[in-house]
Amino acid sequence: MGFHRTRELTFILGNKCNISCTYCYPGEYKYGSLKLDLRFAKKGISDFLVEEKLIPLNKIRYFAVGEPTVEFNLMKQIHEYVNERVVIRESKQIRSEIQTNGVFGEEVAKWIGNNIDVICISCDGPPDLQNKQRPFRNGTSTSKIIERNVGILRQYSIDVGMRPTITSFSNNVLLMKEIIDYGKSIGFDYIYFHPMIPQQGPHIRRKDGNPYAVNPIDFAMNYVEAWEYANKKGIFLGNHFTINFDEESEIYCRACLPSPQLTLDGYVSCCDEALYGSSEYDGDRFKDLIIGKYDQETNEIILFWDRIKKLKEKRNVLNMDQCKDCDIALNCGGGCLGEALFAYGSPFVKLSDDFCIAMKHLARNIPRNKGLFRYMHP
Fold it and tell me: 294 near 37, Cβ under 8 Å?
């Protein structure tokens, strides 16, 4: 057992964004002009893809605190280096993915179609939902651009995924069937719902928790019906609770391996929630998820092996007292360690009792251990 699917090197390209999501959690850091140091990126490629100093990797991913395509030229430079240094010279099969808001020009869409294997677009559903939750900063529509770009991408051999965020802001927990119909109609191959969990994100500092959150039990109850509906429609449907339903695993996700992510301030993180490593950006809050640091003077990446060991040992359900006796532990993994850190101040605990109830409902109603999912956790 183990997290078999995705062992990836993630490049956090920048912290600029071109839209204004109502529930944006990276916004607590304020968008700016930081971008990934290309020299650091190349060193990460050499250390992690070529020399495999951490774990064997099979994928690269382009990500951002804001929108990765804003740093399009940097992404192209990194991609060219990966092809030259790894794919061609080392003859390794490395898949590539970009997680994006889908709001970019036609030139970018065509480049992605020609160069990337998987694109996961944060699209929240039909235009009324999308434009309510993910508008431009002046409040205007983003949906038409996404529809155009999905149409362009459909002309290439690329997996095109949709990642709708489920929030109380639009109460779209009740609209999952409509979101599925829309996603299928414009050409998405698969859909992964992401429910906002109570006490996640910057609102941890608020007494009322996260005002955009949905109750995990409500999500699970509605999701089962949506899953059955999507299955009949012939579209793959997943969510961030059921990522281990294809086969048993002792851990929740790639962060527990851990897989490396190169941050804008010169650190190596293991989790999408840990976007920075330095105290200047509140990195102390995420120190358990920061597993290395880049030394610009020596051009060396120093790995924190004590933290890596702790992650591998303590974020394993067989070693978690709260989880090890649960009959679905190996299809759950204790839930998202980043969200656990936001909610409880530690990534080494399970999520709430409501999460456990939700997981058990999903496990009773959705088949498990039937073979690897084609589409992985985005």
Answer: yes
Say how far apart CA 202 and CA 171 lie, in whole Å: 20
pLDDT at res. 329 = 96
Mean pLDDT of 318-325: 93
Q: What would the pLDDT profile of 154-187 be if each residue is shown by its tens digit? A: 999 999 999 999 999 889 999 999 999 999 999 9
Q: Give 85-100 pLDDT, tens digit per residue.
A: 998 777 778 999 999 9
Q: In this predicted structure, what is the pLDDT of residue 201?
A: 47
Amino acid at 303: L
Lowest average pLDDT, out of 4-8, 43-47, 265-269, goes to: 4-8
Average of pLDDT values for 123-146? 95
What predicted TM-score, i.e. pTM, was given to this entire model? 0.94
Closest by Cα among 151, 94, 93, 92 to 121: 151
Domain 8-365 belongs in CATH node 3.20.20.70: yes
Q: Which of 258, 129, 119 is nearest to 192 (CA)?
A: 119
Q: Give the per-residue SS3 of the chain.
A: CCCCCCCEEEEECECCCCCCCCCCCHHHHCCCCCECCHHHHHHHHHHHHHCCCCCCCCEEEEECCCCHHHHHHHHHHHHHHHHHHHHHCCCCCCEEEEEECCCCCHHHHHHHHHHCCEEEECCCCCHHHHHHHCCCCCCCCCHHHHHHHHHHHCCCCCEEEECCEECCCCCHHHCHHHHHHHHHHHCCCEEEEEECCCCCHHHHHCCCCCCCCCCHHHHHHHHHHHHHHHHHHCCEEEECCCCCCCCCCCCCCHHHCCCCEECCCCEEECCCCCCCCCHHHCHHHHHHHEEEEEECCCCEEEECHHHHHHHHHHCCHHHCCCCCCCCCHHHCCCCCHHHHHHHHCCCCCCCCHHHHHHHHHHHHHCCCCCCCCCCCCC
Q: What average pLDDT does the structure give for the chain?
A: 91
